[in-house]
Amino acid sequence: MVEAVTNVLDDSGLQRILAVMAHPDDVDFGCAGSVAGWTDQGIEVVYLMVTDGDAGGFDDGVTREEMASLRREEQRAAAKCVGVTDVRFLGYPDGRVEATLELRRDIARVIRQVRPDRVLMPSPERNYERIYPSHPDHRAVGGAALDAVYPDARNPYAFPELLADEGLEAWTAREVWLSGGPVVNHYVDITDQFDRKVNALRAHASQTSHMGDELPNMLRGWLSANAKAAGFGDGRLAEGFQVVDTA
């Protein structure tokens, strides 16, 4: 579903963007091209991964603890490909994330720390046309992160311990971008950032090394379809989002 949106914040007025995702590699599949474009403009981007991705991978000889450590390092390496140096992890168990009050508080804490203008997150809605983005962890993180943006992070009386014990003042993020959901109302042309997106995903070797040349070909298929829907013209590549005004 594609709907036009006209009130997207101008990137030139942004100082910080926070991406809240469920697993290492989620941000790179969904948003790495857009992130590369933002950091090129001098916008600070921070990553928050709710899990360490310990349930991922294909090697039975790797323990879950080893996988978690490996995937944290892969995400840090992938972040560098697109100009991100601040990568944080909450350490929730992969595959068992629920949109609890505890998770809302943990995300609200980081929102108050980072004080972003824009927050990226997975869509909390299931996408029946393309099921893979609708992993239960993605939907749980999307729901919790959206609640953390509104009302938790901006309400000084929500989770009062964040202010009383940690000195974190309330903060209003003005805009949310949802990735992977059934509604798309905004596209970002990432043609010039495509190679960096591929490099970021290849940094997640435990998840993508088996794909070889299939990886960029698969990405081009997805991204060219987005660009066509956006009307960007032949040969262009785009990432799609649902933008929500939360000011």
UniProtKB/TrEMBL annotation:
<dbReference type="InterPro" id="IPR003737">
    <property type="entry name" value="GlcNAc_PI_deacetylase-related"/>
</dbReference>
<dbReference type="GO" id="GO:0016137">
    <property type="term" value="P:glycoside metabolic process"/>
</dbReference>
<protein>
    <submittedName>
        <fullName>PIG-L family deacetylase</fullName>
    </submittedName>
</protein>
<dbReference type="Pfam" id="PF02585">
    <property type="entry name" value="PIG-L"/>
</dbReference>
<keyword id="KW-0862">Zinc</keyword>
<dbReference type="InterPro" id="IPR024078">
    <property type="entry name" value="LmbE-like_dom_sf"/>
</dbReference>
<dbReference type="GO" id="GO:0016811">
    <property type="term" value="F:hydrolase activity, acting on carbon-nitrogen (but not peptide) bonds, in linear amides"/>
</dbReference>
